[in-house]
Specification:
Strand content of chain B: over 45%
Distance between the termini of chain A: 37 Å
Oligomer: heterodimer
Largest sheet of chain A: 7 strands, mixed
Radius of gyration of chain B: 13 Å
Order of helices and strands of chain A: EEEEEEEEEEE
Number of strands of chain B: 12
Number of helices of chain A: 0
Amino acid sequence: GAVVSQHPSWVICKSGTSVKIECRSLDFQATTMFWYRQFPKQSLMLMATSNEGSKATYEQGVEKDKFLINHASLTLSTLTVTSAHPEDSSFYICSARDWTSGTDEQYFGPGTRLTVT
Amino acid sequence: AQSVAQPEDQVNVAEGNPLTVKCTYSVSGNPYLFWYVQYPNRGLQFLLKYITGDNLVKGSYGFEAEFNKSQTSFHLKKPSALVSDSALYFCAVSQQAGTALIFGKGTTLSVSS
């Protein structure tokens, strides 16, 4: 089946630094990827929709200048948390939409645990 | 606006007993409904989905779910629970294929031996 990877799986950074998280579709092309965040014991909340070759669409309340999304190729989307603060500590999960195979399925990555100290 | 409700924070069952995890939804038009399972510090694993057709959907690991349009429900079921089924379960909905999912708050399933 289709596989989506995320790198890194976990990261610890200091407050004020930036962190980049990669989301890759390994065996299919994804024109659309989604970024979610999950706080402990809470549900997944959609942050933004990433479209290859165009600007991401952010959900209300998500700062686009803080959470930079780049979808430069059909297999890679990146989320950069800029000037990270402890309240950005969360579990970030991406998903990729596979429409080329005709299934239009959505596959989730394993997630990235971000801890800001 | 779309929404998903999982009314139970936790469901406790004994191993071998049937289990049900409840989900109701609100969406305009025909819903696309999903169930995912999440183990600690892991991503989501797809269990099953309903798009159209038979109201009873069979999925992975012996799970199934029944779509009930009149009650706007999509409850997850399994005839005989295993201890290894203990995890966090999410119901999700979207208005069309391939769009972002709206998730319920999740239900923790605890299966005791």
